[in-house]
Amino acid sequence: MKPGKPDNTTNYRGSGLSAGAIHGLGALVMKSLTLLFLLSLIPVSTAHAQTKIAIVKSKNIAAYSEAVTGFTDALKSRNANATYDEYLVTAANLIGTLKTTKPDIIYTLGTSATKTVSKAITTTPIVFAMVMDPRGAGIQGSHITGASLDIPAYLLIQSLKRTLPDARNVGVIYNAAENNDFITTAIKAAQNLGLNLKPYAVKSSKEIPDMKDLDIDALWMIPDTVVCKTANVEGIFLTSLKHKIPVMGISSSYAKAGAIMAVSCDYKDIGAQAGEIAHMIINGTKPRSIAISNPRKTKLYLNLAVADRLKIKIPGNIVSEATEVYGK
Amino acid sequence: MKKLLLLSAIVMLAGSQGIEDLLFEEIPVVFAASKFEQPLIEAPASVIIITAQEIERYGYTTLDQALEGVTGLYVTYDRAYKYLGVRGYYTPGDYNSRVLQLVDGMSYNEAVYGAASIGTLFGVDMSDVQRIEIVKGPGSALYGTNALFAVINIVTKSGETINGARASGQYGSYESKQGFFGFGSKQGDIDFLLSGSYTDAPGQDLYFEEYDGYEDEMGTIHDGTAVNCDALNVRNVHAKIAYKTLTLQGTYNRREKNDPTAVYWTIFNDSDTKNVDEHGFVELKFAPNIDETKDVMARAYYSRYDYYGYWAYYYPEEDYFYKELSRDYAKSEFYGSELQFNYRIMDMDRLTVGGEFQHHMTLQQLWDEGLEGDDYYYLYLDDERIFDIWSLYAQNVFEIARMSFVLGVRYDNYHTFGGTTNPRVGWVYNPFENTAIKVLYGTAFRAPSPYEMYYHDGYYSMLANEDLEPERLTTAEFVLEQGFGRHLKGSVSLYRTDVKDLIYQVLTEDDLLQFQNVGEAEAMGVEVNLNANYKGILARAGVNYQESQNVTDDTELVNSPKYSGNIGVSIPVLAEKVFFTVESRYVGERLDVWLEPVDPYLSTNVILFAKDLIPHVELTAKVLNVLDEEYYDPCSSEHEQSSIMQDGRTFHVKLTLKI
After folding, report:
1. Low-confidence winner among B297-301, B341-345, B568-572 (lowest mean pLDDT)
2. Which of B644, B593, B598 is nearest to B91 (CA)?
3. Distance of alpha carbon B333 from alpha carbon B412, whole angstroms
4. Residue in A closest to B18 by C-alpha
5. Strand ranges (E), B485-630
6. For range B139-160, the mean pLDDT
7. Of B18, B346, B612, which has the smallest distance from its Cβ to A111's Cβ?
8. What residues does B513 pair with on adjacent strands?
9. What is the pLDDT of residues A230-273, one digit of tens each?
10. Residue B276 has what pLDDT?
């Protein structure tokens, strides 16, 4: 219908407006109402449209399962309407599947999965979790962000200080090629906490010094591919017992095996952090605008049998704070 | 943050794994080699570990299936029991008495035959096994008798590891069925586990050429087929409860197996001939740490084994034959205790000293049980033996620089033949991080079992021999272990074994079977192993070449393959939820008891294992001997056959629900 052409079938009497004017106004109102209706739909669709999320794990282990649960719980509690497809990074034709199914977000767990996916997929937002030192591992890009496993050195040393208040000189054995910058940060953190951190750099297992020669009150172990070899760890624990030098390990299995204490991440909460990041992306925030987060919750593991043998009394409030206490 | 380039290099070196993997690692340890746990590369022995993961993915449901995949080991089956050969040694008539079997460090061999239980006689279901440690070579310096050719330690899972309930059902060829139920958990300081299984298999109708056309005493002419004579029925219970350093553990196994081979010239094609074995043990162990350098282990245990043999014969009357059951009964009952003390002197010396005492009672009976009334009852054998064994042992491991020296000695005192002292010397050198050179020397002994010394059947077919002396063995071994990166490990082992006073079942001039010390035997060989573990792929391969001979008469040993080998690959095919596994084993030509060659064989198994495709559900589907290879195992002189045909292709499906 062309504008201005009289409508022969409708007679608008006594309105003072011509039929064409009336028609133009109605069309405008209808258009406006339609636009308003469509506009009103936008927030509704944001809240209720389904988001397809692909979950890619580096391997099948309990810690990753906890991080998946934390992730999905976080989105559910924020009323995100999401569907999840779970894959292992070793799955046949993983990248092809991801390109075909076109998920809105890819949630990766572990360095292996994150690197594999981020190399091949460069547009879909990737939220990672359970990755240690992501930048150092070469994980970067404007479409990538996530929750790392990097507990700040300050928090770890603080935990050691609270659990072992008599320790002043704390040793740490590390591979300089791998952990030099971390140790530099840690030395400053220890100074701020009134501790003397004594670093011992090694290049291979055979250079690991005997703890009795180190003149230290405690040994702090950090994730290090040279030092944390199984044979080395056993030797460190045995020396710890012999020379009564407590060791702080890197995971619960260390505390179970012979370290007096260990601090590790709450893997479910790491997943929840990643879930919160994913929720921000669903709501329109660009991944490059979201900083990689550090763990906000840690778990403390104690071994009281080791403490007894070392004749160390761990403060009662620390024991009650511990997530798990071995050797009770 | 850490330096990008350097760290990237490290990440590349570590493959595609992340440093965070260090957080999830467990430290593997071995117990059997030294009676205390230590890293494999430092163990003063040639050690193979079969993990729970391999048990799952290779679909092993019995211990013999797992052991067959180990280089240098081979299993022989005469359709009554399974027998384990080690590096060319398996003497016919031996019930695995030359291998020491441990369950969490406790001896599982019974005492009347000295038998290790490697097949369905073993009372622990494979799903309860955390790992199997196989230490080839003599172990008497630590463990005493039976530890002649190998020590096999089965480490069971804790309740905490299982953490829930499991139920499974298995169905296979020839209507074999197995049900399993178990649960385990840790509540506070109490860790507990309970499981049980039931197996029922009617078996196969089997053809034996030796009985084709055979006319028995009743005038029946057989076509060589034994029908309904191969049935198997097994019940297992395993329980464990631990409170801190105190552990109470027990197992019970009852196994009933028909014998289709007409062993001991019983009636052919008669389902009344069968073996029933019942075996149980209970152990209370207390292993506290005294302080940082000392710990102690004390345990008390009780073991009982009962054997019931049913042998169907035709006996002649004046003008007719009647059927009668010849009955065997054997009992081994013993209790004992052990006290062991470990002391780490400074940081370089570990001393283990201990003592053990055992009180034994064995009973062997043989009688005819008249099917036509009590008048026919006749007792041939009623032999009861009560004896004590006491032992003292010590071992010292001295470490300096990258070397360790091992010196061990054990004294065992038997009332039957007096005392025996067995030393062990070892040198382990780790010149590089992933390299170990091991030079090992040891002696071992095996006391003749009451069965070998005192059993007879009224001198119809078997004679006793109270003059038997213990066998004595000496082994020297050189082992080179080398890791190649994190994913590949290899080892080469050169060994020589000499046995004196080898106990062997022979036919006397009167055509009677008797165990005798037949003289000396020796074996020399080389063994090569490769193991890889990369991105969820498990692969292994191994070959063993050995030459053995009876030095006394310069003949080759019976059932002693010169060549044997195995290869296995397990690949994740679907998101580490579905695994495809292929394993093959080759056993070279062997001699039977008549010194005739038995053909070599190559048997291949294919296994598909799926877990968590459906939450809480696992599925194992396997085809054993998938190429349907026809092969035979040599058997002992108590058979008309010189070798027994083994199973062709069989199918098995197992469904497990885990909650």
Report:
1. B341-345
2. B593
3. 19
4. A111
5. 488-500, 503-507, 513-517, 521-534, 537-550, 555-556, 563-574, 578-587, 590-591, 597-598, 601-611, 617-624
6. 85
7. B18
8. B462, B507
9. 778 877 887 887 788 999 999 988 888 889 999 999 999 999 99
10. 97
The predicted model gives A208-230 an average pLDDT of 89
Residue-number span of the structural domain to which B355 is assigned: 4-658
- For range B480-487, the mean pLDDT: 84
E strands in chain A: 51-57, 82-88, 105-109, 126-131, 144-148, 169-175, 196-202, 218-220, 247-249, 261-265, 298-303, 324-326
Does A244 contact chain B (CB < 8 Å)?
yes
Domains located in chain A, CATH noted: 50-150+267-289 (3.40.50.2300), 153-265+298-326 (3.40.50.2300)
What is the spatial distance between Cα A55 and Cα A58, in angstroms, rounded to a whole number?
A: 10
B289 sits in the region (left: phi over 0; alpha: psi -120 to 50; else beta) called beta
State the pLDDT at residue A127: 97
Q: Is the pTM of this model over 0.80?
A: no
Domains in chain B, number: 1
Scanning A276-295 for CB atoms below 8 A from B yields: none
Cα–Cα dist B119/B90, whole Å: 16
Smallest Cα–Cα separation from B74: which of B149, B162, B124? B149
> Token pair 């050969």 is at which residue?
B85
Chain A and chain B share a number of CB contacts under 8 A equal to: 146
Tell me the per-residue pLDDT of B310-326, one tens digit each, with 9 for 90 and over: 999 988 777 778 888 88
Chain B residue with the nearest C-alpha to that of A262: B23
Indicate the residue type of B10. I
- Residues in chain B, how many? 659
Q: Would you say A287 and A146 are in contact if contact means Cβ atoms under 8 Å apart?
A: no
B contact residues 132-151, partner A, Cβ 8 Å cutoff: none
Q: How confident is the model at residue B148 (pLDDT cuts 50, 70, 90)?
A: confident
Between CA B593 and CA B558 the distance in angstroms is 6
Task: Answer yes or no: are the C-beta atoms of A172 and A196 closer than 8 Å.
Answer: no
Tens of pLDDT, residue by residue over B398-426, are 888 778 888 999 999 987 778 889 888 98
Residue B623: give its domain's CATH number.
2.40.170.20
Residue A224 has pLDDT above 70, yes or no: yes
Question: Closest residue of B to A205, CA-based?
Answer: B433
